[in-house]
Amino acid sequence: MLIRYSDGRILAGILLALTGSIMRVALKDEDDVAEYRLLNGRWISEDCEPVTFEFPLAAFQAAGIIPEAQVPELPVVGPEDAGIEPTVQHLN
C-alpha cells in the first residue's frame, strides 16, 4: 500500500491490522509499526498529519488475488432457478 501525506511524501507499507478506527502498517525501511487513526472521516498519522491510502492493483495481481483478465461474468439467474413461477403482466 502507499501512504500519501499532505506535504507530498509517499511511503510504502503493508497493512498489518485494521480494527475499528485504527490501522497498523509496517512501513518500508522502518523498524517500528506506524499507527493511523480515523478521526472525523479522515485518516490521521501519529504526527497528526492527514493521510490517504492507495492500494495498487499490481500488488494484488502479483499475489494472485485479482485475475489479470476481466472478472468472469456471473450466470443470469431467473425465477425458474429459484422454483418460482414467473408472472406475466401486460401493459395496456
How is this structure best described in words?
This protein is mainly β and 92 residues long. The chain has a domain at 2-61. The chain is 7% helix and 38% strand. The protein has one helix at residues 57-62, and strands spanning 2-5, 10-19, 22-27, 33-39, 42-44, 50-54. Strands 1-2-3-4-5-6 form a six-stranded antiparallel barrel. Strand 1 and strand 2 form a beta hairpin. The termini are far apart. The model has no long low-confidence stretch (mean pLDDT 80).
Oligomer: single chain
What proportion strand?
35-45%
Largest sheet: 6 strands, antiparallel, barrel
Distance between the termini: 57 Å
Number of strands: 6
Whole-angstrom Rg: 22 Å
Q: Provide mean pLDDT, rounded.
A: 80
Stretches where pLDDT is under 50 for at least 5 consecutive residues are none
Helix content: under 10%
Structural class: mainly beta
